[in-house]
Amino acid sequence: MEAFIVAARKHYPRSGPRMLRARLVAKYPGRDFPSSSTFGNIIKRNGLATVRRRRQRARVAPLAEPLGVAEAPNSIWCIDYKGDFKTQDGQRCYPLTIVDAFSRFCIRCEVTSAISTTTTEQIIDEAFREYGVPATIRSDNGAPFAASGPLGLSLLAVWLLRLGIRLERISPGKPQQNGRQERFHRTLKEATASPPAPSLRLQQRAFDHFRRDYNEERPHQALGMKPPGTVYVPSSKRYPCGLIAPQAPSWAQLHVVQRDGSIRWGRKRLFISSALWGQRVHTDPIGKTTWSVSLGHLELGHFDEAKETLRFVSHRRRRAAHYLEL
Questions:
Q1: pLDDT at 55 over 60
Q2: pLDDT digits (tens, 9 = 90+) for 5-14
Q3: I need a labelling partner for 239 at 20 to 30 A (CA). Which of 32, 40, 194, 294 fits?
Q4: Measuring CA to CA, how many Å separate 307 from each of 291, 302, 304?
């Protein structure tokens, strides 16, 4: 039995005692295995233990408006670009990952050579076609998920909003608010990029192999030592689905955002955001010379007609800084 456990540990060098035992129990249901603590003793006795130093993290105050809680599969998808690295042939790799927050199921793990809106949208589109549409997508504040315009809206964010998806963004500089994704990236790096593959094509092959093992075989402690694939189910909201048209009050003035991101205001142009090109925004008077500019119920800013200035809504003081939905 000890020789069998040692051989299994060498085959799964990154599996701890509890996970290794769960793997073997699932693979050989008819065999009687010792406890997890015995597994740990055998691993240490044979010099196969891995000692890791945990980095101390500074304590941070909780947000006044906490992020949502994943209560079922597809209630929240977490999306992020893992830190880039070079493959052995010198090509830059930017892995894009999508993970279901409830089941930890890895929906996508794709090699990209650069971060772009087009590539990101294509990967998300493929994920929607295979698994359906989630209720919420959580990301950081980097491109292409957010931009410097009103409410941090980017082209990608506007597309997701119009699909009826609620957007969450973590606070800047606080990746621990998306801790499951960060932990997944650490596991991904250890398993597939230490060292990196010889090329991008072989790196994608390593990602695909890891994803199959992670979803279908690798036990997860938060799931009662079950693989994520046994918990995850596709979304009931199928894709493609129609785009939502933001609703405006009947008395408001409608404006179509031009290609350059501006709307017509009399004989002049008022710049709103290039991310809203082709969308309908509406203006509503809130004073003698002041107008509210909104996309659906999302207030973008206030326009002072006398001063000819547009003041965008402060991200820090608005609830929409963390939550966005039309």
A1: no
A2: 999 988 888 8
A3: 294
A4: 12, 11, 5
Q: What pLDDT was estimated at residue 12?
A: 87
Evaluate whether 245 touches 263 at the Cβ level (below 8 Å): no
Q: How far apart are CA 262 and CA 255, in angstroms?
A: 9
Considering only CA atoms, which of 164, 166, 120 is closest in space to residue 142?
120
pLDDT of residue 191: 93
Domain boundaries along the sequence of the chain: 2-45, 77-230, 253-318
The DSSP bridge partners found for residue 268 are 265
- The secondary structure of the chain, three-state, reads CHHHHHHHHHHCCCCCHHHHHHHHHHHCCCCCCCCHHHHHHHHHHCCCCCCCCCCCCCCCCCCCCCCCCCCCCCCCEEEEECCCEECCCCCEECCEEEEECCCCCEEEEECCCCCCHHHHHHHHHHHHHHHCCCCEEEECCCCCCCCCCHHHCCHHHHHHHHCCCEEEECCCCCHHHHHHHHHHHHHHHHHHCCCCCCCHHHHHHHHHHHHHHHHHCCCEHHHCCECHHHCCCCCCCCCCCCCCCCCCCCCCEEEECCCCCEEEECCEEEECCHHHCCCEEEEEECCCCEEEEEECCEEEEEEECCCCEEEECCCCCCHHHCEECC
- Give CA–CA dist 251/284, Å, rounded: 8
- Does the domain spanning 77-230 belong to CATH 3.30.420.10? yes
Question: Rounded to whole angstroms, what are the CA distances from 162 to 5, 26, 171, 186, 274?
Answer: 52, 43, 23, 33, 16
**Contacts (Cβ under 8 Å, ≥6 apart) of 160:** 124, 137, 167
Query: What's the pTM value of the predicted model, to 2 decimals?
Result: 0.80
Residue predicted with more confidence, 18 or 176: 18
